[in-house]
Every structure is written in C-alpha cells, then in structure tokens.
From TrEMBL:
It holds the Pfam family DUF3105. Residues 1-10 have a biased composition (Polar residues). This is DUF3105 domain-containing protein. The lineage of its organism: Bacteria, Bacillati, Actinomycetota, Actinomycetes, Kitasatosporales. It comes from the Bacteria. It comes from Streptomyces antibioticus. Coiled coil: none annotated. Keywords: Membrane, Transmembrane, Transmembrane helix. Residues 14-25 have a biased composition (Basic and acidic residues). Residues 1-25 are annotated as: Disordered. The keyword Oxidoreductase does not apply.
Length: 220
C-alpha cells in the first residue's frame, strides 16, 4: 500500500512539473502575441481604424451576490464538502460569499498567483477563488495561529506548486485549508491532515479548470 501511495504521489508531482513547463512555454507565446498585437494595434490606429474586442468570458452585467445555494457536509476525514451550486462566472461587482474563506463561486477574471506564493496581507476573495478554480489549495490563518506554525506552513507552500497562503482574520479558526468546494480546519503545521489535504486537493479531481496556470496572475 505504501509503495502504491508513493507511486501515486510521484506521478502527481511529475504531472504538476509537466504542467509548469507547459505554463512557461504558453507564457512565452503569450508575450510574443501581446507584442505582435500591440504593433498591429498601433498600425490600425495610424490608419484610422479602431477595433474594440469585448471579452466573452467576462460578464459585467451579472448581478454578483454570491448567494450560492448549498451547504457544507462534513466527511469522516474532517473535510467539509460544499453540496450545492458554485457559480463560475467572471464578474466585476463585489461578491458576497456565504462562507469565509470562500470555497468557490463567481469571481474576478484575474487570479492570484498560486505557484507556492505566500502573501503577508489579506487577499481579495474574488481573486483567490479564481486560483481555487485552477486547482490551488489556499492556506489561511488568523492572528491566533502560532508563529511557528505559520512559518512551517509558509515553508511547505513555497515548495508546493498550485498553493498559496495568506492571513484572514475573518475566518472562524486559526488555521484553515481550502480547495474548490472543500475546506477543513487543522490544529497546526504538524497535523497529518495538512499533508492529506494537499495530496488530495492540489490539482485534485475537484479542479474545475484542470491544468490552468497558477502564474501570470496578480502578485497582490
């Protein structure tokens, strides 16, 4: 059994590393396209033609109240799973999420960088939820969390792709872990539930946009 777990873990790490390499290649292509597009745009302006392209993925007319229907159901492993609907629309109006930290729902079109990024200031939930959509695990903590635990968790996040960490004094417990549609409280950095949650939900089956980048977003 232990051998099978190690094989599964190694396969997941290899898959994540392959996705990171793919992301970097895509970013290089995107930069080239942006530069090329800028040159074309300037030429069009000189010629007197201005074209406005409206993103079809960004619905600015949506009323973003974040009141998604559903509730948490706690499993035997202590993980709370959201049973109900979680919106995935890109919106510009502020979303009022029913839980803190949110586990999903309508969100901003920009995501927070989640390639092992540790933030020292609270995040905009709308950007962090977009990171969850990409398969990230979000570690949050309050000022009641022991400093040693915060530092140990930060070290773990920094070496784990598709994770991010930030303070959140609005949450109920000192240390919480969140993935899209899933959440749990842990007692500290050495709680076995931390590794179990990372193993299951970092780019796990719950990911709405499997393989989507965790770089190229907002740095804060």
């Amino acid at each position: 059994m232990g051998s099978a777990d190690r094989t599964s873990s190694a396969a997941r790490k290899a898959r994540i590393e392959e996705m990171r390499r793919t992301e970097k290649a895509r970013e290089r292509r995107n930069r080239i396209l942006v530069i090329t597009g800028s040159v074309v745009a300037v030429a069009a302006l000189v010629a007197g033609g201005v074209f406005v392209v409206k993103s079809q993925s960004d619905d600015k007319s949506t009323a973003a109240d974040g009141k998604t229907a559903g509730k948490f159901v706690t499993g035997a492993d202590g993980v709370k799973t959201w049973k109900g609907t979680l919106g995935r629309t890109h919106v510009t109006k502020t979303v009022d999420y029913p839980v803190e930290p949110p586990v999903g729902g309508d969100h901003d079109r920009a995501w927070m960088n989640c390639d092992g990024d540790v933030y020292t200031e609270p995040l905009n939930n709308m950007n962090a939820v977009h990171s969850l959509e990409h398969g990230a695990v979000w570690v949050t903590y309050t000022d009641k969390a022991p400093k040693a635990d915060v530092e140990a968790l930060a070290a773990k996040v920094k070496k784990t792709p598709y994770t991010l960490m930030s303070p959140d004094d609005g949450q109920a417990d000192p240390i919480m872990l969140t993935a899209w549609g899933h959440q749990r409280t842990v007692t500290g950095a050495d709680d076995p539930a931390v590794d179990a949650f990372f193993e299951k939900f970092v780019q796990g089956e719950q990911t709405p946009e499997m393989g989507a980048t965790c770089t190229g977003g907002l740095p804060q």
